[in-house]
Amino acid sequence: VLGIYSRENGQGMLFPEEEEPTPPEDSGPEDTPPSSGRPSLKVVK
Questions:
Q1: What spans are recorded as compositionally biased (Acidic residues) (predicted)?
Q2: Confidence (pLDDT) at 42
Q3: Are 3 and 15 a contacting pair, CB within 8 Å?
Q4: Which of 9, 15, 26, 43 has the fewest CB atoms found within 10 Å of its own CB?
Q5: Rounded CA separation 3/16 (Å)
Q6: Is the pLDDT of residue 10 over 80?
Q7: Is the distance from CB of 33 to CB of 19 less than 8 angstroms?
Q8: SS3 of 34, please?
């Protein structure tokens, strides 16, 4: 998306172009559990 403009009055804004993100450095194994292929959700009340 480069910008957003209103149909009613033509007002809007442009967003600055983003630079290419640098790939994250591989800092070793992460603390995330291995994926079992199925998402898991927990009910919080």
A1: 16-29
A2: 85
A3: yes
A4: 43
A5: 9
A6: yes
A7: no
A8: coil
